[in-house]
Amino acid sequence: MRTINTKALFITVSLALTSLAANAQELPKVFGKTINEASVNNETGKIRCVTTEYKQYLENESSERATSIAFENWMAQKIAERRAARGTESTLNTTEVITIPVVVHIIHNGDPVGSNENLADAQVLSQITVLNQDYRRMAGTPGYNTNAVGADVEIEFCLAQTAPDGSLTNGIDRVNLGQSSWGENAIENTLKPNTIWDPTQYFNIWVCRFGGGLSGVLGYAHPPSGSGLPGLDNNGGSANTDGVIIGYEYFGSAALYPQGTYGGPYNGGRTTTHEIGHSLGLIHTWGPTFNNSSCNSSDHCADTPTSSGPNGGCSANYSCGSNDMIENYMDYTNDACMNIFTQDQKERMLIVMENSPRRASLKTSTVCQVPASREDFNLLNGINLYPNPTQDVLNIAIASNELPDSYVIYNNLGQTMVEVNVTSENNLKLNTSNYSNGIYFIRIEKGNESKVLKFIKN
What we know:
By secondary structure, the chain is α/β, with parallel strands linked by helices. It has seven helices and 17 strands.
């Protein structure tokens, strides 16, 4: 007969319970709510996103703010209207690509540019490149996929060239607020309201060092509002906190700018892709809440498989009767695994861009153009590029008999690709066959005037 050492058993159980209690106590509280343990990556200890908690905080702060349920009812109605108007046409292609003007606020504590949270310009530019690769499903980049439901969202991002006062800017706003790290209360009450640019004309992105309950968090986003729904007045209220905020070490791409500062497997710029998805109306792939492995929640997108909760790392996972779409930008997997928005997700984002306050106005914003008052940037009339997008040859078409003096081509990181002094029409045909796929800019000069145009190589 085997005897049981009850004292040893008691000690073992007690230690186990103590360990569980300690782990529970370690879960941070953000926006007044304890983080669900499913949000914490078991390998890295990082929390991918706290937008769910932030949305609840915003609803609690204002009884007049539309609830998530009201927003989803509005969204469902808009989707039904769009599909009825589209009829049997299955394509979601827009008549033109939407360009969202961006300002990136780098919040620092006096560090030199390029160190700690005062990120280098090149790291910021690498993030804009990633956004365009991801939202355009750009072939030959990490943002491309071969999934049948994969979507080119037809949304692009550009750094603003005109500041709110009309002066020239590069779209990177460096602000020394004299504070080393930021918790949620300081961010919402001080950092954002004191630095935001007009959210009807600029999409605001903040980059800072998180502290307090946000330590270990990668980022969070301000959700959109449905037109006609209460809670998001364009002239105040939560308008002065609208945008996304990202921990500095999770902003930009180590592949594009390896000299930057990055945090582990979240070094591909996908945190910003994810959070902007929230700001354009997307929900996590498993739904709006953490239901402890339940399959009853939904992201309201039929082409994203139902999943029981967030996924970490890059391992395949089977739940709710199918393989989870771990490569979706709205899951919690590592940056290297992500490469897809779906057609239904695209439809939600386009509806927000067409109808939501402070999103729809971004479509007509002109702040990505250089200030008209600057003589050096007066536009040369009648100059165009074709074909655009291009593959092997790009032509510069001019309407007048005069040739431009010169032109310079830059890639999306601001690096010079080629400089050409124009001496004949032969110089207006450019061989692009050796260019990598992506977005480029050409600055064409004539006298004291110049014109900047964008083209895409695919």
